[in-house]
């Protein structure tokens, strides 16, 4: 559980930290050694003890697909694949070595760069760390590129190409000439064509390798729990031996020519999922930190996106929008270019009205700008997102550091720690004025470098010609500036009398030092005081029931109700009024309805605790369901259904869903008749069925709110909720909408691009598994994945990737499941599927080798024991301060897993699992299981050899 919390926090750090790359004088990073070798290769070596006992190795190659000639499309990517075959120091293959040593690795080729990495290498294993240095060196100039390996990788890359051929890929390639104004970016798609993939020889790849993999275009980074000076000696020795280029290359960035007239394109594809419009503006972004306030511009982009999105939301909140959905963004496009994008789906027949509305908002922002009040609110919200990061002890991952080094290597961005970066960003944000943001917007928002693109499934839809776009664009410039009615301020959120309830009973749960309150309305609250929780509080609640209690007659209206919660405001307040009231209150609150539970959850600061619970009370007791909002929702639903893709993979998926989950009273088709059965008058009743009786709920209040204050707030705003004390606990009803057939085997043909065979295998059973069997099932997942990878990809060259999932649940019923999915050629589908069955039989009968077992068993043992050690090291320091940890513990308590008791779930270590345990649990799962064997093939006439 802790691991998932830390990963979530890390993702937030990545989003915030890496957005704000500072420009300032060079700052020293403790433990960093950097330099450039005489041959031109750049290196960064950082002591980062955050992952104790591990080191990470990176090679950044300033070479990507954009450097290919028209006869070389796909070679940069092909070369990346070749890097995992035979090299100078790994004659039996890099992939073999990495997998034999259970190492985590990755590589990716982009339009401008190629990146290799090996992560979490144990520092104590000097033989492996030394091998990684040689591996990076081999990637620089020691890849063998043997004909047999080229043939093998051509097949694998061909499967990768096949797997990617869908409507999204066709869309990306079709609009590229209009996004990039027919420049090289429009034609270089990284992977190339299937015909080209199979045409390349070892000589072709070697030529590209020797031409571009040069030390002056290479950057090595080594990051981990190491002594940098010792590693620097080896870097100089090993990488210094790479010969310098006879004629060093200075990498020039590709340019996109400007266009004064909007570029226009109609994307029409029978599998396109919705009729929509995109307005895109490409902007040159100066990358030299001495010529541009990089951090300021990136902060402004973030603020612009937030504020422009607010304007779209204001239209929706007032039900004045002419579009079903709309988004706006300002983000990097390709190297040294940014893009402002407005994408929207208009209501039926409202294409031009929606277009004019979007362009009017764009024009309003340009001419009038954002006002100081909304700017200050957005600035404070962004500041509040960044402030906790300044106080965090664990900022950044090795990948984050690699990105920092990349920015320094490419653009000369100064090197600073993540805390320094955030402090600089906060300083820049605090100093920023609304005039700075508006001037920045006006510096690029004009009619240059525009693209206007429509998307539809049929030629008769979205027929808005370029001339009409230009006409509307000219009209909004002449029209008065679009204005928004400022919502009346909310002076007192709850202006009526609330009769407080009482805490009738208080019980101390001694082994957790948690207090349980039983309220006068029947609800229960588990309270845990954490004085060091950084002035935050978390409040969550759940009740049994969920969708399982909805009658078949109510299913259409229930869907509408769940979709329209909070969409019509609360009490007498509009959504825009509530939005204004919530500004800078740091309140997060949401409701959830799942298959078997109903939930409420949120968090806030101690300073805003009472406002949070006022808002919670209003959400649970004063929901509005406005007729105009309801009618728009039904109209939108019907429109999206009528315009859904009815061909290709969408049609296949509809067929598969019908086979696996046949329509019934509990599983009606969501068609026009379904939407016609939605009834506005049912929505308040259905909402109250889920949230109208507090006695069904158990809540958890965790954080820095002192007990006396917590008691007062709970009695006033939670104990006062409607509830029926003494009511029997609500129970869910078991529902199973899947087909009752034990075995379903089907083969479908569809109008799909390319020579395609797609396989989906699933085995589901309903037997209870012991703790040891549950642990063994996790080994089964990795073992099946590894065996299929070895056989279907590496040996057969028949697939690119294989998805394997194994899962076990006890609630609402016992169920274990194994799923396998992969894509291959049409003619190979039967054979690849048969091999998959043979591998399952091999594992099920314990016929796999000890080597096969150790390949997956050892990494699982190592990872688990490292995680257990980290948890032991951090539990004492975090247990009393981590609200999320306590929320998880209390949820487990509510669900019946008593803390520190014999009832707690048994934990079985991977080290205790044997080959026989793995074979036995797979046999138990598959014996008598429901089997789903589905094959989808492209129609034979739909493809040619290439």
Helix-and-strand structural type? alpha+beta
Q: Tell me the total number of β-strands.
A: 23
**Over the alpha carbons, how many angstroms does the gyration radius reach?**
30 Å
- N- to C-terminal separation? 48 Å
Provide the CATH superfamily of the largest domain: Metalloenzyme, LuxS/M16 peptidase-like
Summarize the amount of helix as a percent range: 40-55%
Strand content: 15-25%
Number of helices: 29
Side by side, the strands of the main sheet go 12-13-14-18-15-17-16
Shape: globular
The CATH architecture of the largest domain can be given as 2-Layer Sandwich
CATH class of the largest domain: Alpha Beta
Average pLDDT, to the nearest integer?
A: 92
Number of separate structural domains:
4
CATH third-level topology of the largest domain: Cytochrome Bc1 Complex, Chain A, domain 1
**Low-pLDDT regions:** 1-27, 942-946
State the gist of this model.
With 946 residues, this protein is an alpha+beta fold.
How would you characterize the overall build of this protein?
It is a single chain. The protein is of the alpha+beta class. Helices cover 42% and strands 19% of the residues. It folds into 4 domains: 201 residues, Metalloenzyme, LuxS/M16 peptidase-like (Cytochrome Bc1 Complex, Chain A, domain 1); 205 residues, Metalloenzyme, LuxS/M16 peptidase-like (Cytochrome Bc1 Complex, Chain A, domain 1, 2-Layer Sandwich), CATH 3.30.830; 156 residues, Metalloenzyme, LuxS/M16 peptidase-like (Cytochrome Bc1 Complex, Chain A, domain 1, 2-Layer Sandwich), CATH 3.30.830.10; 200 residues, Metalloenzyme, LuxS/M16 peptidase-like (Cytochrome Bc1 Complex, Chain A, domain 1, 2-Layer Sandwich). Helix 10 packs across helix 15, helix 12 runs antiparallel to helix 14 and helix 19 packs parallel to helix 24. The longest helix is centred in the C-terminal third of the chain and has 29 residues. The protein is globular.
């Amino acid at each position: 559980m802790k691991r998932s919390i830390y990963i979530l926090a890390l993702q937030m750090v990545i989003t915030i930290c890496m957005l704000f790359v500072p420009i300032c004088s060079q700052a020293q990073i403790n433990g960093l050694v950097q330099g450039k070798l005489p041959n031109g290769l750049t290196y960064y070596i950082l002591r980062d003890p955050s992952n104790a006992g591990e080191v990470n190795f990176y090679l950044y190659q300033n070479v990507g697909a954009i450097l290919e000639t028209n006869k070389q499309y796909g070679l940069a990517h092909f070369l990346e694949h070749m890097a995992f075959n035979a090299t100078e120091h790994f004659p039996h293959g890099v992939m073999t070595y990495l997998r034999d040593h259970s190492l985590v690795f990755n590589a990716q080729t982009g339009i401008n760069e190629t990146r290799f990495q090996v992560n979490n290498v144990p520092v104590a294993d000097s033989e492996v760390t030394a091998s990684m240095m040689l591996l990076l060196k081999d990637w620089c100039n020691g890849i063998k590129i043997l004909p047999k390996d080229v043939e093998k990788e051509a097949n694998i890359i061909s499967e990768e190409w096949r797997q990617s051929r869908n409507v999204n890929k066709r869309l990306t390639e079709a609009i590229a000439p209009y996004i990039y104004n027919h420049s090289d970016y429009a034609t270089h798609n990284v992977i190339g064509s299937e015909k080209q993939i199979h045409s390349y020889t070892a000589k072709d790849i070697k030529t590209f390798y020797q031409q571009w993999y040069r030390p002056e275009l290479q950057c090595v980074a080594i990051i981990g729990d190491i002594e940098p000076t010792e590693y620097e000696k080896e870097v100089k020795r090993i990488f210094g031996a790479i010969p310098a280029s006879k004629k060093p290359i200075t990498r020039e960035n590709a340019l996109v020519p400007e266009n004064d007239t909007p570029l226009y394109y109609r994307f029409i594809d029978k599998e396109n999922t919705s009729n929509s419009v995109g307005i895109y503006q490409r902007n040159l972004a100066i990358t030299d930190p001495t010529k541009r306030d990089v951090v300021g511009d990136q902060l402004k982009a973030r603020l612009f996106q937030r504020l422009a999105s607010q304007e779209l939301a204001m239209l929706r909140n007032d039900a004045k929008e002419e579009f079903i959905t709309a988004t706006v963004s300002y983000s990097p496009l390709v190297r040294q270019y940014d893009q402002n994008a407005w994408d929207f789906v208009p209501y039926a027949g409202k294409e031009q009205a929606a277009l004019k509305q979007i362009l009017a908002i764009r024009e309003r922002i340009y001419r009038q700008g954002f006002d100081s009040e909304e700017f200050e609110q957005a600035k404070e919200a962004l500041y509040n997102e960044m402030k906790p990061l300044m106080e965090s002890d664990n900022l950044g991952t090795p990948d984050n550091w690699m990105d920092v080094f990349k920015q320094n290597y490419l653009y000369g961005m100064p090197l600073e720690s993540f805390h320094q970066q955030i402090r600089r960003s906060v300083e820049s944000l605090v100093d920023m004025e609304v005039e700075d943001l508006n001037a920045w917007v006006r510096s690029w928002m004009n009619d240059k470098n525009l693209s206007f693109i429509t998307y539809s499934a049929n030629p008769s839809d979205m027929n808005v010609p370029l001339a009409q776009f230009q006409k509307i664009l000219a009209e909004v410039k002449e029209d008065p500036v679009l204005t928004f009615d400022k919502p009346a301020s909310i002076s007192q959120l709850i202006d009526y009398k609330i009769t407080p309830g009482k805490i009738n009973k208080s019980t101390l749960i001694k082994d957790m030092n948690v207090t349980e309150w039983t309220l006068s309305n029947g609800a229960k609250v588990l309270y845990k005081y954490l004085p060091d929780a950084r002035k935050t509080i978390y409040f969550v609640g759940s009740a049994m029931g969920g969708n399982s209690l909805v009658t078949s007659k109510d299913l259409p209206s229930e869907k509408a109700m769940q979709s329209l919660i909070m969409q019509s405001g609360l009490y007498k307040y509009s959504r825009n009024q509530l939005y204004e009231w919530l500004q800078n209150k740091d309140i997060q609150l949401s409701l959830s309805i799942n298959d078997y539970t109903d939930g409420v959850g949120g968090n806030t600061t101690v300073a805003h605790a009472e406002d949070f619970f006022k808002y919670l009370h209003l959400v649970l007791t004063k929901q509005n369901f406005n007729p105009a909002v309801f009618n728009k929702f039904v109209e939108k639903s019907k429109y999206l259904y009528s315009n859904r893709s009815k061909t290709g993979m969408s049609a296949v998926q509809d067929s598969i869903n019908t086979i696996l989950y046949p329509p019934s009273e509990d599983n009606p088709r969501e068609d026009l008749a379904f939407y016609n059965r939605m009834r506005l008058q049912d929505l308040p009743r259905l909402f109250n069925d889920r949230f109208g009786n507090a006695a069904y709920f158990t809540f958890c209040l965790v954080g820095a709110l002192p007990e006396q204050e917590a008691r007062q707030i709970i009695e006033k705003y939670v104990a006062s909720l409607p509830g029926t004390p003494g009511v029997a606990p609500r129970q869910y009803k078991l529902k199973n909408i899947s087909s009752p057939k034990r075995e379903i085997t089907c083969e479908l043909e569809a109008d799909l691009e390319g020579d395609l065979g797609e396989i989906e295998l699933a085995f589901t059973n309903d037997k209870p598994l012991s703790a040891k069997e549950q642990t063994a099932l996790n080994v089964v997942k990795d073992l099946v994945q590894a065996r299929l990878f070895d056989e279907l990809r590496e040996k057969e060259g028949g697939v690119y990737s294989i998805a394997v999932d194994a899962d076990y649940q006890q609630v609402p019923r016992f169920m274990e499941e194994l799923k396998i999915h992969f894509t291959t050629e049409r003619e190979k589908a039967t054979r690849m599927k048969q091999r998959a069955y043979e591998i399952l039989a091999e594992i099920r009968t314990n016929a796999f080798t000890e080597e096969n077992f150790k390949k997956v068993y050892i990494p699982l043992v190592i990872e688990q024991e490292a995680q257990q050690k980290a948890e032991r090291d951090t539990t004492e320091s975090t247990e009393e301060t981590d609200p999320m940890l306590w929320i998880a513990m209390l949820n487990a308590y509510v669900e019946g897993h008593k803390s520190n008791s014999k009832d707690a779930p048994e934990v079985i270590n991977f080290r205790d699992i044997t080959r026989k345990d793995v074979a036995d649990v797979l046999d138990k799962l598959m014996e008598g299981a429901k089997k789903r064997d589905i094959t989808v093939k492209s129609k034979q006439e739909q493809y040619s050899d290439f």
